[in-house]
Design goal:
The chain is an alpha+beta fold. The chain folds into three domains: about 110 residues, Alpha-Beta Plaits (2-Layer Sandwich); about 100 residues, Chitinase A, domain 3 (Roll), CATH 3.10.50.40; about 160 residues, Trigger factor, domain 2 (Orthogonal Bundle). It is built from twelve helices and eleven strands. The strands form three sheets. Strands 6, 7, 8, 9 and 10 form a five-stranded antiparallel sheet that branches. Strand 1 and strand 2 form a beta hairpin. Helix 1 packs across helix 3, helix 6 crosses helix 12 and helix 7 packs across helix 9. It is elongated and about 90 Å long. The two termini are about 55 Å apart.
């Protein structure tokens, strides 16, 4: 076997691997034996037919194709070991260059290198964790939300007024052209809660069941859908039902619904929960500030597009899982924001690039500080994941695979590195 290396770019390396005709003859014999194991050849047991009989049965090129797969599997690791000393990522891309009977076999391997990372200062930043205090307004917002979850709603035969819920069919248009995804059936609107945009629900006051109305609403200039920002949108609505809403009183009965004795205890619990949440938010912001600083201080080589594209794929998968966990459907979510996965992926590019940079710098810190993960920590994490997915045998099998264990190890190493960075810099 001979191997030639060509550096295509700072992040792409090409290897040309040549396997001699003599070696290919041996691989072809192995290939013929394997083929005979799954091919019926009269007069011979599976795997026992001679080469010429297998060749006559399946054809020489079929044997060569099988032999090429064996040749790649037997030689690629050694080729990479000989010619690539840098860290690389992803799966090697393999292309057959030359294959013919009684000739040398040649294939090409393309790999993507991890960019060189030179660490800058990553300790002693002296950043402070800034925890926002819990205000009475914060507590009242939660109390208000809890009351909303226990509201009593009754259908009424009267004009709609503030704080009523009205069930609508909605049709939207812009410049007399119906808007894509601008139609809705049985849409619930609480008057006074500024549904979608400010001013929309003001036009609903006084409607009765089966009433229809046409009106225009000016969308804010900074509205997230650019095609609607700053535009007057026409609405045609039909009232399907009017519901009077009665919120529960703030008394012991209300508190008892949450297993507490009175409103004071309820508010105390809310405050403690909000304090915990704000502390967590402050730690998250501090972590982000530190990671941003270590990336700024580091010097990174050319970042391969593949790393960014893989990160975008991961981010889209994370978003889809969050939508599913919230009881939604990802296709419906995309429709609601009027975007495709591809458009969303483009928007994710800057964040994905930053996440790749953080990952590369963390990797360099892990190597520099010789951070390791104990066997016990690995075992505990694997067992925890197996418990979480015990209802899904395929997921459990995946968790136990060597590839996924490498993923777990990388995740635990990153956690350990971030923990150290938090202690060094705050």
């Amino acid at each position: 076997m001979t191997v030639t290396r060509n550096d295509i770019s700072a992040s792409r390396v090409e290897l040309i691997v040549t396997v001699s005709a003599a070696d290919m003859k041996r691989f072809a014999e192995t290939a013929a034996m394997r083929l005979s194991e799954r091919t019926t050849i009269e007069g011979f047991r599976p795997g026992k037919a001679p080469f010429d009989m297998v060749k006559k049965k399946v054809g020489e090129m079929v044997i060569l194709d099988e032999a090429s797969k064996i040749a790649v599997s037997k030689t690629i690791d050694q080729a990479l070991k000989e010619k690539v000393t840098e860290d690389w990522v992803g799966q090697p891309e393999i292309t057959i260059v030359k294959i013919a009977p009684d000739n040398d076999f040649e294939y090409k391997v393309m790999i993507t290198l991890l960019p060189a990372t030179t660490l800058g200062e990553y300790k002693n930043f002296g950043f402070k964790k800034e925890v926002e205090p819990v205000t009475e307004e914060d507590i009242e917002k939660v109390v208000s939300h809890l009351r909303e979850t226990r509201v009593n709603e009754i259908s009424v035969e009267r004009d709609a007024k503030k704080d009523d819920k009205i069930i609508l069919d909605i049709n939207m248009s812009l410049d007399n052209v119906p808007l894509e995804n601008g139609q809705g059936k049985d849409v619930a609107v609480v008057i006074g809660k500024e549904f979608v945009i400010p001013g929309f629900d003001d036009h609903l006051i006084g409607m009765k069941k089966d009433d229809e109305r046409d009106f225009e609403v000016l969308y804010p200039g900074d509205y997230h859908q650019k095609m609607l920002a700053g535009k007057k949108v026409s609405f045609h609505v039909k009232a399907k039902d009017i519901l009077s809403r009665e919120l529960p009183s703030l008394d012991e009965t209300f508190a008892a619904g949450f297993g507490l004795k009175d409103i004071d205890e309820l508010k105390k619990n809310i405050k403690e929960s909000l304090e915990h949440e704000k502390k967590h938010d402050a730690e998250f912001k501090l972590e982000g500030k530190i990671l941003e600083q270590i990336v700024t201080n580091a010097t990174l080589g050319e970042i391969p597009d593949m790393l960014v594209e893989n990160e975008i794929t991961t981010m889209l998968a994370e978003l889809e899982q969050n939508v599913i966990n919230s009881g939604g459907v990802f296709v419906d979510y995309l429709s609601s924001i009027n975007k495709s996965s591809e458009q969303l992926g483009e928007e994710f590019k800057p964040q994905a690039l930053q996440r790749v940079k953080v990952s590369l710098v963390l990797r360099a810190i892990i190597n520099a500080e010789k951070i390791t993960v104990s066997d016990e920590a690995m075992k505990n994490e694997v067992e925890e994941l197996k418990k979480r997915y015990n209802h899904d045998p395929k997921a459990v099998e995946m968790v136990e695979s060597s590839a996924y264990r490498r993923h777990i190890e990388a995740m635990l190493l990153n956690r350990a590195a971030i923990k150290d960075l938090m202690s060094w810099n705050s």
